[in-house]
């Protein structure tokens, strides 16, 4: 069994590596100090199991696991955590394997025997726990078998078309299989719904422009692009633009 250990503390990684290798028939193929490094090494080495710390700087373990769940053949994940008993109830209720620090040899061996993949629904529910509540720092898509990450602050808008959503960002665009509703729930403080099929980043919302009788569009700052605003969402868009410097209504 090939294992990748992800933890931002070198001593914790060293101890886990020793415990894992003492379990027998296990090879630790790599160590990572944060979520992004975990994704890179996972794509390159394709480990069977990841021992994944939840609280890491930058991209944390829950977000890394979410991106890994997009892979066609994701690795099994065992979370490592120092969370309180209250927070651990969320893991138990979602049948997600975890190891409570400090980790014991027998508990590690037990977890490795039943290691399993984690699905996105489980990860979303874990993220709703009050002690793990967070939004992702990146959106991900699988392109040519690799995970492609887009920083949230580089996304201009999300636009739905049938069952897919197009993500327009500073480097181009990608298609993801997430719903506009779930994206709005997660990123509602950063994006505003302007139409049933579109969410626009508030920081890139430029101005309203009337294109025909009864028809309004918003201009997107940084790109030559306009998006339709529905009548239902005009009031909230106008209010946001009114309270945002350097925006206008034509």
Strand and helix map with partners:
Elements: E1 2-6, H1 10-22, E2 27-32, H2 35-45, E3 49-53, H3 61-68, E4 76-81, H4 85-93, E5 98-100, H5 105-113, H6 120-127, E6 138-143, E7 146-151, E8 155-161, E9 164-169, E10 172-176, H7 180-187, E11 191-195, E12 198-201, E13 205-212, E14 215-220, E15 226-229, H8 231-242, E16 248-249
Parallel strand pairs: 1-2, 1-3, 3-4, 4-5, 13-16
Antiparallel strand pairs: 6-7, 8-9, 8-12, 9-10, 11-12, 13-14, 14-15
Please give the CATH class of the largest domain.
Answer: Alpha Beta
Sheet having the most strands: 5 strands, parallel
Arithmetic mean pLDDT: 89
State the helical fraction: 25-40%
Radius of gyration: 21 Å
pLDDT < 50 stretches: none
How many β-strands, per DSSP?
16
Beta fraction: 25-35%
Spatial sequence of strands, sheet with the most strands: 2-1-3-4-5
CATH-derived topology of the largest domain: Rossmann fold
Q: What do we call the CATH homologous superfamily of the largest domain?
A: Response regulator
Which architecture of the largest domain would the CATH scheme give at its second level?
A: 3-Layer(aba) Sandwich
Counted up, domains total: 2
Which H/E pattern describes the elements? EHEHEHEHEHHEEEEEHEEEEEHE
How far from one another are the termini?
63 Å
* Quaternary structure type: single chain
Shape: elongated
Q: Can you count the helices?
A: 8
> Class by helix and strand content?
alpha/beta
């Amino acid at each position: 069994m090939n294992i990748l250990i992800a933890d931002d503390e070198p001593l914790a990684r060293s101890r886990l590596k020793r415990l894992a290798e003492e379990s027998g028939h296990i090879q630790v193929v790599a160590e990572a100090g944060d979520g992004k490094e975990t994704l890179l090494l996972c794509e390159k080495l394709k480990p069977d199991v990841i021992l994944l710390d939840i609280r890491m700087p930058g991209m944390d373990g829950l977000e890394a696991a979410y991106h890994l769940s997009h892979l066609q053949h994701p690795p099994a994940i065992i979370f490592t955590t120092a969370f309180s008993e209250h927070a651990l109830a969320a893991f138990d209720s979602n049948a997600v394997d975890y190891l409570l620090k400090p980790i014991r040899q027998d508990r590690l061996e037990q977890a490795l025997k039943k290691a399993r993949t984690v699905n996105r629904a489980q990860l979303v529910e874990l993220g709703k726990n009050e002690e793990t509540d967070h939004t992702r720092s990146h959106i991900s898509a699988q392109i040519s078998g690799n995970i492609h990450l887009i920083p949230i602050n580089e996304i201009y808008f999300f636009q739905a078309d049938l069952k897919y959503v197009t993500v327009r960002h500073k480097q181009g665009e990608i298609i993801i299989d997430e719903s506009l509703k779930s994206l709005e729930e997660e990123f509602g403080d950063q994006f505003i719904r302007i139409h049933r099929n579109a969410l626009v980043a508030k920081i890139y919302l430029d101005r309203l422009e009337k294109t025909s009788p009864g028809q309004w569009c918003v201009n997107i700052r940084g790109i030559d692009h306009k998006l339709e605003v529905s009548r239902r969402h005009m009031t909230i868009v106008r209010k946001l633009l009114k309270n945002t410097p350097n925006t206008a209504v034509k």
